[in-house]
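Exam revision sheet. Question 4 asks you to relate a sequence to its structure. Input first:
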Amino acid sequence: MRALAPGLGLALALVAGLGLGLASDGAHAEAPLCRAEVVLDAKRAFVGEPVLHRLRIEQRREVADLRWETSLSFPALRVELLLGPGGPPEQSATHQTIEERRVLFPARAGRLALPAARIACESAGRVESAVVPASELIAEEPPREGRPPGWAGLIGPVEVTSYVTPDRVTLGESVSISVTVRGATNVWTAPVQFAGAFPPGVAELFERPAELARDMGRTLVLRSYRSFDLVPRRAGRLELPEVRVAYFDSEAKRYEEARAPAIPIEVAERSEQPAAPGLAETGPAEPSAALDPLPGWLASAALALGAGLAAGFWLGRRLRSRRPAAAAVTPDERRAAHDALRTALASADASAAASAASRTLRLALEPALPGARGLAVEELAASAPSGLEATLVLLARLERARFGGSDPSALLALAREAAALGR
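Answer key, structure tokens:
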């Protein structure tokens, strides 16, 4: 028995050590607080083509805090964050999964690396780090074959719309031009130019800074707004040229073109408006601010709206032959006008806000008053049905402020009224 004692002691020691080791391993085998993965909806894309990037983090329910130790980075990529949920949350009794979504736009061709990152996960009893794995995206240039001369890197499909406000002016007035390029892609690259469209003796064109609006929900829709002020220098007929925007359709693998039709603009000689017969003399008008209830030239419009005075009926008969046929207002037109108004108000661009507000009000009037896109307010007031008084009076105040040199704060205040009226 003595001879077995040393071997037995060694065996017992091994068993005890193994038991301690198993206990230790069990303590360390506790499930991690967090796990992270990166999912790219495509491994290859064209330069400028949007690719959905999803960061999925599975965390235990006891996790109280998540924070970056090493942030994500996206070299050679433009990034747009999506705010809306990608789908219903994934939950179980012990875990839940959260997801961050971004849209990546490759800025150059090649193998684009997305470096690894690290997050810290903290519960009441411990803090752990989790690795966000590295990934990569291979970007390539669209084919040169069939590439149109005017292509500027835009990946499609896209839609383009254009409008002018107003489309009838007299010399000394200006026309606001807005062009919108819309799509779930890199619309900021779309070239919209009217260089050389109008000789210097015919009209002058002034471009405003471009603006980009984002609709960020489950998908990303971008709108690029290009705005111009056109000042005619002689009477006659002008025409805003057709807008053509070339793009590469990544699904069809071919180049296409989005178009917005040409728009005519009528420019009349400056002339004094004849006084309406039967209208009582009221003496010279007192100067008034742009926000006065009935400033200057608005009086005739308001009177025609409220009581149908003889002046309104006379003006309506005189101008009836000039009224254009009804033109349908499309939902895209309304949406573009409202979007332009919201964008201009958000950036406090008084001139752009006033122009977009005028467009919004005129489109609202068009179904009941054909020609509202371009006719003067007095012309519209002469035959306006009841129920449109508030819109017409606001439009009159707005036009008076736009072309009467009002200060930016007054224009913004009127534009906000128009936005509120259109809700």
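Marking note for examiners. The helical segments are 5-28, 298-307, 310-319, 331-346, 350-365, 377-382, 389-403, 408-421.
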